[in-house]
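User: For my dataset I need records formatted as: sequence, then structure tokens, nothing else. Please produce one.
Assistant:
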Amino acid sequence: MFLQLFSKIKPSVSIKLFYGYFMIVLLYKFIFKSIYGFLLLSTAFYWYVDEFTELCPFNGLQLLNWFVFLDTEYKTAIFTSIVTISGFVIAFYAATLNWKHQMRAQIMYEISKEIDDFFLRAERSNSIIKIHAKKMIDAASKIKGKSIATLEEAEFLVDNNVKDTAKFLEARDNLVNASINVHRMIARHYIVLITNVGALDHAKMFADSLQDIVQKIYIDLPYVRHNDPIRVNQFVQQVNMDRCAELVEVCEKAETVISATAGALRGQLQNRALGVNSRVVAHMFKNHEHMRKFAEDIYK
């Protein structure tokens, strides 16, 4: 509905309509679908019922006088009724609240598991790409620097790099798909992420790191034939060491970001169920040096 609204009406008007509708729905849910709202509505109806009917309800002092002059039996009946109804309401509210907390904790755990699996696949693909780019740089630099004694050793390095090209291509496709699917994942769990302070920022930080890798991931991959006598020269000519070095740099930076954001999101989502205790606090202070190093890596 709002997509059509945004496409047909100017943003200056459609945004106001959207937030107006949002506040109306929020107010409606508070008044008619919550205990506090229903209590507020009932109280307002009691005090202002004489404005639109012929009834004239008691005010606070009149209610007190009416109660004082009641017989003892009526007072006892009213008091026991209030206690019974209040106990029922409190028990129902407590049970509903516990059920909501349990469902929220279960949802948080399932989402954190999905995000953790997603991050793990991305981290594995990032490691494969980084290692392959490093191997290409290492092989090309050794061959160019003539630090290899025999042609057989050079051919072994070339064959070893070419053999792992398929793994690199698979990891590249996985990361490209992850850079797209991460936005779908954020949109799917947007409501949950914004209810946890900093969770959405961490998810966006992870998405930005994937985008940085994708921008550098399309390096030239050497195409040489096995047992070709000139494959060593072809390999050296086709390897762009500068672009490989840029890819390794961005992969190393993303590796830190992925690990950090994965742990942060997992902790934020599971904290609703597990909470923070004294052991967690002691562990955090015990590893403050690791936290400092982690902060330095993120800052770089």
